[in-house]
Write a structure and sequence with these properties.
Layout: E1 4-8, E2 16-20, E3 29-33, E4 36-39, H1 40-45, E5 57-59, E6 64-67, E7 79-80, E8 86-91, E9 94-99, E10 110-111, H2 143-157
Parallel strand pairs: 7-10
Antiparallel strand pairs: 1-2, 3-9, 4-6, 5-6, 8-9
Bound molecules: zinc ion.
């Protein structure tokens, strides 16, 4: 039995998400993240990858990227959360999704898409509604800077 099923998402109300079909232990590999392997040169020059859907593009090494924006890649449906319960793992040219917390049956599977602060993060508002939500989809290490910025803005507004 698969550990996940596709269902309407609670986070992305216009889209789908993946849900645990049973309790999943931390460290369990859940699904492969598949797609087309392209050269970094292709992703640099093809306008398809111009920031429109960077969330599907993985840098595998300095020669190859993985373009997961294909319909057979079920793992692309996993939504971002600032309190993600899964994360991407990879080795060589393979990428997969692993549970980083114990997940209860019926919970939505979430990953950290991880845009850096330097990227135009305001294009990607986050609606995960978790307590840790910073409002935008950004990599964990960059969040304190965003939080700081929010605080500053709030002060100015008052
Ligand atoms: Zn969030």
């Amino acid at each position: 039995m698969k550990l996940y099923r596709v269902k309407k998402s609670n986070i992305d109300k216009y889209g789908k998400g993946l849900y645990a079909t049973k309790d999943i232990k931390v460290g369990t590999k859940i699904i492969d993240y598949v797609g087309n392997i392209i050269t970094t040169k292709q992703s640099d020059t093809n306008p398809k990858f111009d920031n429109k859907k960077p969330i599907y593009l993985f840098n595998l090494n300095n020669r190859y990227d993985l373009d997961g924006d294909v319909h057979w890649n079920t793992a692309r449906l996993i939504n971002h959360s600032c309190s993600n319960n899964c994360d991407y793992e990879g080795k060589g040219l393979k990428v997969w999704i692993t549970a980083i917390k114990n997940i209860k049956k019926g919970e939505e599977l979430t990953c950290d898409y991880g845009f850096s602060y330097d990227c135009d993060y305001k294009q990607f508002p986050c609606k995960c509604r978790s307590m840790n939500c910073v409002g935008y989809i950004v990599r964990e290490g960059s969040r304190w800077r965003i939080n700081k910025k929010f605080k500053k803005n709030n002060r100015v507004n008052r």
